[in-house]
Design a protein that fits this description.
This protein has 215 residues and is mainly α. 89% of the residues lie in helices and 0% in strands.
Length: 215
């Protein structure tokens, strides 16, 4: 009987270790999914109030989150691409002698040999650096898409069965019922204060930054 008890314990530990090694690549995705679900769960509850089917409500939430993540990225990449092309065209056609006074040009020619060559090399390095960053981004794009798919997949089931998951965690915790409730309420209030504090701060920074750019 003792041998069977130790065998079950060792088997359980081995299963946990193997499971950890299997999912360790996706730990960041799982945590991100949990965080996003926690942030948007009040919105899900509001949708589920009118759409009683949890599967449909979860699907609507996934579409909303996907749009919130992808649309800013698409607009940013589009704007950056246009700006990069504009800057490249401007630099390629740019002539320093058109804007600098003759005295400054004479000083540069006297003290800096082959200034035009250095400027051309600087432009080449800048363009090469941008190209390398773009290549790295495109190379990691399939992995980023896979991570996004995993996050949304986990979020779907967390939205759908989130309350059941929390209930199961509460039942497993070795604490009295009132302590569990107090602990979860404290975690909930502190987490929401931190998360929404960051969101409000980010919004204020965005508004101030936009006003500054417009000015």
């Amino acid at each position: 009987r003792d041998h069977s008890k130790y065998f079950l314990l060792i088997s359980f530990i081995i299963v946990i270790v193997i499971s950890f090694f299997l999912i360790r690549t996706f730990v960041a995705d799982i945590l991100a999914a949990g965080l996003f679900t926690y942030i948007f769960y009040p919105v899900y509850k509001l949708i589920n109030k009118y759409v009683k089917d949890k599967t449909v409500s979860s699907s609507i939430m996934i579409i909303i989150v996907l749009l919130l993540i992808t649309l800013p990225i698409i607009f940013s990449v589009k704007a950056l691409s246009k700006d990069a092309l504009r800057i490249y065209t401007y630099i390629s056609l740019y002539d320093v002698s058109d804007v600098l006074p003759p005295s400054v040009l004479e000083f540069i020619e006297t003290n800096f040999v082959n200034a035009d060559l250095y400027f051309d090399r600087l432009v080449e390095k800048l363009i090469l650096s941008i190209s390398e960053r773009l290549s790295e981004f495109l190379g990691t794009l399939p992995l980023k898409i896979l991570d996004l798919f995993i996050i949304l997949f986990i979020m779907f089931y967390l939205f759908k069965d989130g309350e059941k998951v929390v209930k199961d965690i509460k039942e497993v915790m070795p604490l009295r019922v009132e302590y569990k409730e107090r602990l979860f309420k404290r975690i909930n209030s502190v987490s929401y204060a931190i998360l929404y504090g960051h969101v409000v701060t980010a919004l204020i920074q965005g508004v101030v930054g936009t006003i500054g750019l417009l000015i």
